[in-house]
Automatic annotation (TrEMBL), chain B:
Gene3D superfamilies xrefs: 3.40.50.2300
Keyword tRNA-binding: no
Organism of origin: Aeromicrobium terrae
GO biological process: phosphorelay signal transduction system
PANTHER family in the cross-refs: RESPONSE REGULATORY DOMAIN-CONTAINING PROTEIN (PTHR44591:SF3), STRESS RESPONSE REGULATOR PROTEIN 1 (PTHR44591)
Protein name (database record): Response regulator
Residue positions, PTM 4-aspartylphosphate: D54
Keyword Disulfide bond: no
Length: 500, 117
């Protein structure tokens, strides 16, 4: 009797949902009626049956029961449509859980459709961002080709003209001709430089947004009051969009606004880049279709950002944009690289793949240097060991410049200095372990290698017991690999072949 | 005494042109390198007055070469060069090199002016 009354109350709770009752979502209602403030709902994608999405439409792996949590799937006609991740203790009250799910049934269907819609919107945005990204990369390639090709040839020609003009000093007419040609050429080089800058702003890639904005502010035109408070680097797509926005806005100010002052402000708050360009000119600007500003609004929209143009007549113009820094857009090649990296950290370290999201190229460079220095540096290791290290970094998908920098590293840092850098102390055992593997790659440890490793362990604050354990792991691993070789490789190789 | 210069650029044709132009002004090009890999060893061997290094090179770029030479080459001055604009180049040179010269303006006079700063 009590139970039936409670079930009816549940049904009434959910009935309120469709009418926009006080609980905004079915999740909040379920959280309340089941007394589990951390309850989460996931949905299967309509029409796909395989992928799972959150209520916000974001892809998510199928939730597994974790510490203290349980997963209860919700089926329709034998097919999963949603699932609850909830407090494990609710499993002791299966009827109540069932009743809540039944009561929420209709609301869940609605929520699932909404989640599906959000997922499709999100996918559409990501797809726009991917198209934009592919276009940017193509333009970057064109810019590189122009730089390495035509521009390089023209500057060479310009030097040659100057040389010819010097040599023709006795012939004023020829000198004048050559100087004219040199001037024409200088203009062509300057125009080409402007053109390539418009095709792809390499300055953003080279100096970050802050440097790129400083360079914009220094260009001819109205003096710019620049107020920039930015971290060193932001996601590339965000930096490029912000740069284009400021460049276009400043061009417009100089061309049309009859302004006396212009200010540019850029800062990051709550993982959003805020950027604004404000002038005191004539106002009345409108982003018409096909205009530079409209193109920028589209670019910013594709990155999930917001663009605004406020330009009342005779009251100046303010262009603002807010760009989220969390850009999940990845090209196919980047996605494959991340998959490879996640595989690598799981396979080598049994660590969750997500840790790779936090590793930067600079961290990899320091790790490579530490691995080298632990073994005495590039000056001490054998060719075989260097090959192991470079192969290892390549397999770990380190950036080309990092690999090159490690391969040619001149051992000029000290372990004492490197270990002070942020994030490094936590990884010292891993780096020492890799260094031990490198030393072992060309056969048993030599006395020299052992003394380097012992000294390095002491500098890194790794005890001699820990060092012994790391060595034992490497040796045991080698024994396991010999077993693998005997079982898998030996039967198919000529008699007597030994491991590579 | 002529100004002694090491020229680092992955573009062979530009190296040849730059060498010809500089030598015509009495500059002595003591070494040419196609990459920054051997930069430090070369500078320590030749002791040039100036190292002219291209910004954009594969593998190790000019900024990294300048960084590697920093504090290790005595009185040798490192100057970046490229086809990039002056503002762009100056930003890159900040803190790692004595300055930046757009390639089409490369001359003894411009180098001397940078050295005088």
């Amino acid at each position: 009797m009590i139970r039936r009354r409670r079930d009816r109350r549940l049904a009434l709770s959910f009935a309120g949902l469709g009418a926009g009752g006080p609980d905004a979502t079915v999740r909040d209602t379920l959280r309340r009626v089941l007394g589990d403030p951390d309850l989460e709902i996931v949905y299967t994608q309509v029409g796909s049956g395989s992928g799972w999405i959150t209520g916000l439409g974001e892809s998510t792996p199928r939730p597994d029961a974790r510490a203290g949590r349980a997963f209860t799937p919700i089926d329709r006609g034998g097919k999963p449509v949603a699932g609850l991740l909830h407090d494990r203790r609710l499993l002791r009250r299966p009827r109540r859980l069932r009743a809540a799910v039944d009561a929420a049934s209709l609301a869940l269907d609605n929520e699932r459709l909404k989640a599906q819609l959000r997922a499709e919107l999100l996918e559409a945005r990501l797809s726009r961002a991917r198209i934009l990204d592919a276009g940017d990369r193509e333009l970057q390639r064109v810019e590189r080709n122009l730089h390495d090709g035509a521009q390089q040839r023209l500057v060479g020609l310009s030097l040659t003209f100057r040389l010819a003009s010097r040599r023709a000093a006795d012939d004023p007419e020829l000198t004048a001709l050559l100087d004219d040609a040199a001037r024409e050429l200088s203009d062509a080089i300057a125009e080409l430089r402007e053109l390539t800058r418009g095709i792809h702003p390499a300055i953003v890639e080279d100096t970050g947004l802050r440097g790129a904005l400083e360079s914009l502010a220094e260009r001819p035109g109205l003096p710019v009051d620049l107020q920039v408070d930015l971290p060193e680097r932001l996601p590339e797509a965000v930096e490029v969009a912000a740069y284009y926005l400021v460049a276009e806005a400043l061009t417009n100010v100089n061309k049309h606004a009859s302004a006396t002052r212009v200010s540019v402000q850029a800062y990051v708050a709550d993982d959003v880049l805020h950027i604004s360009v404000r002038d005191d000119g004539a106002g009345g600007a409108e982003p018409s279709a096909g205009s530079g500003l409209q193109g920028l609004a589209d670019r910013i929209g594709a990155l999930g950002g917001v663009f605004e143009l406020v330009s009342p007549p005779a009251s100046g113009t303010t262009v603002t944009a807010a760009l989220p820094l969390d850009q999940a857009v990845q090209t196919d090649a980047e996605q494959r690289r991340m998959t490879a990296l996640r595989w690598f950290v799981r396979e080598n370290w049994d660590m969750p793949g997500e840790v790779v999201d936090q590793i930067r190229d600079e961290d990899n460079l320091i790790a490579g240097k530490v691995m080298l220095l632990c073994a005495g540096g590039n000056a001490s290791i054998t060719d075989r060991e260097r090959e192991w290290l470079i192969g290892y970094l390549t397999a770990a998908r380190d950036a080309d410049w990092v690999i090159e920098a490690v391969a040619t590293y001149d051992d000029s840092d000290t372990l004492e200095d490197l270990i002070q850098l942020p994030g490094i102390p936590e990884t010292r055992r891993g780096m020492l372990y890799d260094s031990i593997r490198m030393c072992f790659s060309d056969g048993p440890f030599t006395p020299g290698e052992l003394s380097h490793l012992e000294r390095s362990a002491a500098v890194l604050g790794v005890t001699s017991d820990e060092l012994d354990e790391l060595r034992a792991i490497v040796e045991a691993d080698a024994a396991l690999r010999r077993r693998r070789f005997t079982t898998i490789v030996t039967p198919v190789l000529p008699h007597g072949t030994t491991p590579a | 005494m002529p100004l002694r210069v090491v020229l680092i650029d992955d573009d062979r044709r530009f190296r040849a042109t730059a060498r010809r132009a500089l030598e015509a002004e009495g500059v002595e090009v003591v070494a040419e390198l196609a990459s920054g890999k051997q930069a430090l060893a070369t500078v320590q061997r030749c002791y040039p007055d100036v190292v002219l290094v291209d910004v954009r090179m594969p593998w190790i770029d000019g900024v990294e070469v300048a960084r590697r030479l920093q504090g290790k080459v005595g009185t040798t001055v490192v100057i970046l060069m490229s086809t990039l604009g002056l503002d762009h180049g100056r930003l890159l040179a900040e803190g790692v090199a004595a300055g930046y010269i757009p390639k089409d303006e490369l001359s003894l006079a411009v180098i001397t002016e940078l050295l005088a700063r």
